[in-house]
Design brief:
single chain, alpha+beta, 6 strands
Length: 206
């Protein structure tokens, strides 16, 4: 069903059904969770070591960097970089104080077009943007556009620390997309990939 999330709890139910059909004794839930979590941690460690994780029939996951390229649109607005909302809030608070307003009053009364934004240019990583990527090329399941992979918060924080530490990863190669400006990855090289077992469906669990 669209919108459903799959985690260890749901996969254990599937595991119980499979063991019942094959007439084998399943391991307890706590042991199953420990095995899955340790294996997923192993895959994450491999990914942060620079390997791509191939999931048979489900594509591949890996870490990529992309150069941040700021540009202006036809209206003079900055594009290609994300706003820093934390620093933008500080700026708006200072602007509100200058006008004798509270922050909420400033947001409510000042038009959106007149409120300045502070952008992230990633100076700490030499203009590189880091991302945990899921490549769907080669997926054999139907309606693959309905599936999404949400990486856990721990992995995202680990990636943030890697970016601040200047760890280098493979740079993403952009591919033209007529639908959006989003970078689409087309990994042609098979070097450095780590192949997970065929029954690995859960990639990262929170």
């Amino acid at each position: 069903m669209i919108g459903d999330k799959v985690c260890t709890k749901e996969s254990y139910l599937l595991y119980r059904e499979i063991t019942k059909e094959e007439k084998v004794c399943p391991v307890p839930r706590d042991m199953y969770g420990k095995i899955v979590n340790e294996f997923l941690q192993f895959l994450v460690d491999k990914m942060f070591d620079g390997h791509d994780i191939c999931l048979p029939g489900l594509g591949m996951i890996g870490i990529r960097t992309r150069k941040v390229v700021p540009r202006l649109d036809i209206h003079g607005n900055i594009c290609g970089v994300a706003p820093s909302w934390a620093k933008t809030k500080i700026l708006w608070t200072e602007k509100a104080a200058e006008l004798g307003m509270t922050f909420n009053e400033y947001v409510a009364k000042v038009p959106k077009e007149q409120r300045e934004l502070v952008y992230c240019f990633n100076e700490h990583s030499n203009g590189l943007k880091y991302g945990l990527m899921w490549y769907r090329k080669g997926i054999i399941i139907r309606n693959k556009t309905f599936y999404s992979l949400i990486f856990c918060r721990k992995a995202k924080r680990r990636l943030m620390r890697a970016a601040w530490d200047g760890v280098e990863y493979q740079e993403a190669q952009p591919k033209y997309s007529s639908r959006s400006t989003q970078t689409i990855i087309d990994p042609d090289s098979r070097a450095g990939r780590y192949h997970a077992p065929c029954n690995t469906v859960e990639v990262i669990d929170d």
